[in-house]
């Protein structure tokens, strides 16, 4: 998911859908294309995707980032993309695909949940993003659109509590990424201390937990006590703090749950 500038709608391709517009799609293992969509992908992983996949694999997010992704800083960008590393064997399949389908189905990334839809947030006046926009862009080999099972974009992204949670986290990250479009590193560049801190806050929960509890962080910043108790044991609460921390240290956005001590 990303924030789309108002003049960028025409460049999306595919079929634009209104939130309550119907489309037909069904996927099952009887289709000739089964699993073809799970190979040779640029599969973007957002912070909540990494939290879920690392937990699924029973490893820390730092180890997951080290071993399973490519971190790519594109020319002209100020924050890197995180892409799941495809397997080396023929066809470069996703490391989690098996003959039976997705091997991490309950924890599959947002992009896989969205498929064949894509979702964006249309930038409103002043760059603020509000309205959700949807478009249908399956690859030509995908036979799902020919299967009759009607739904709408809104229902697709509200299908179950997990999908709603992924949608909320990824929308929040899209708004942060939108801010990264303007160089936020105060002259340090994308390899500097501030950039490394922001990456850790989003993608390295063990590093973030150490930073919160083992550095002078709690002397310098006030965290709501209930929140503080939760982040000791709850990765979602920790990531929530990490995203707030990015907003605070880069752009001065504070709230009652996290603010500088006076
Ligand atoms: S129908 Fe589309 S989504 Fe389903 S297996 Fe085939 S290519 Fe993948
Ligand atoms: S995570 Fe699952 S759904 Fe997504 S590409 Fe890999 S196997 Fe396919």
Q: Which strand order spans the largest sheet, edge to edge or round the barrel?
A: 1-8-9-2
User: Could you say which structural class the secondary elements and strand pairing correspond to?
Assistant: alpha+beta
The general outline is globular
Count of DSSP H/I helices: 10
Give the radius of gyration.
19 Å
Written description of the protein model:
There is one protein chain. This protein is α+β, with helices and mostly antiparallel strands and 262 residues long. The chain folds into 2 domains: 2-175, no CATH class; 193-260, no CATH class. The chain has helices at 47-57, 61-68, 110-114, 153-157, 161-179, 193-203, 205-214, 217-220, 225-231, 235-251, and strands at 2-4, 15-17, 22-24, 69-72, 81-84, 97-98, 101-102, 117-123, 129-136, 150-152, 221-223, 258-260. Helix 1 (47-57) crosses helix 2 and helix 6 (193-203) runs antiparallel to helix 10 (235-251). The protein starts with a strand and ends with a strand. The mean pLDDT is 94. The structure holds iron/sulfur cluster (2 copies). One iron/sulfur cluster is lined by residues 38, 41, 43, 94, 96-97, 102, 104, 108-109, 112. Residues 38, 41, 43, 94, 96-97, 102, 104, 108-109, 112 line the site of one iron/sulfur cluster.
